[in-house]
Amino acid sequence: MDDDSVERAKLVEVEGVPLTNHTAENWDSLSAFKARPDDLLISAYPKAGTTWIEEIVDMIQHGGDTQKCARAPIYHRIPFIDLFHPRSVPTVEYQLRLEKADAMPSPRTIKTHLQVQLVPPSFWEQNCKMIYVGRNAKDNAVSYFHFHRMNQRMPEPGTWDQFLENFLTGKGEYIKTKKTKQNKTKQKTHPDFY
Description:
It is built from eleven helices and five strands. It has helices at about 20-25, 25-30, 50-60, 65-70, 75, 90-95, 95-105, 120-125, 135-150, 160-170, 180-190, and strands at about 10-15, 15-20, 40-45, 110, 130-135.
């Protein structure tokens, strides 16, 4: 596919957090997602090691049986509920992530890059277990910058200096630098937030 034929995503604010326009277009469905009490949510900022943790969790859940863990690609085993591609992308499997996650048998393990205040309310209401993955912000910024450069469907990163400025000032995807009291309270009081 030639680079000129790919349209880069744009950033749109959803509740004060910049997300891609494709995620914003699906916001009502995403925020209405129904979690179940035995769901496990893996949450991390992009390029923080989410896929590593997904593989580790899947391996633990299957008693270290590598054959069971090789049953399907990770994005089928652990759906990424807030990843949406442009409608022009012919791959239907990416467009049906929420429906596939909803149809999965319990217990489900689900992935998100959403900040705590954007996580669908049902995860909090159902007291789901949550694993938060963090990474050194310097490493994270460098990795995410290069991911934007490589993935032509991501928003235009600009120069390294521009990307870093946006990253540090809360103008990049999934970033909101001002922590709210509500966010801190959710993280501290949720019984299963690891």
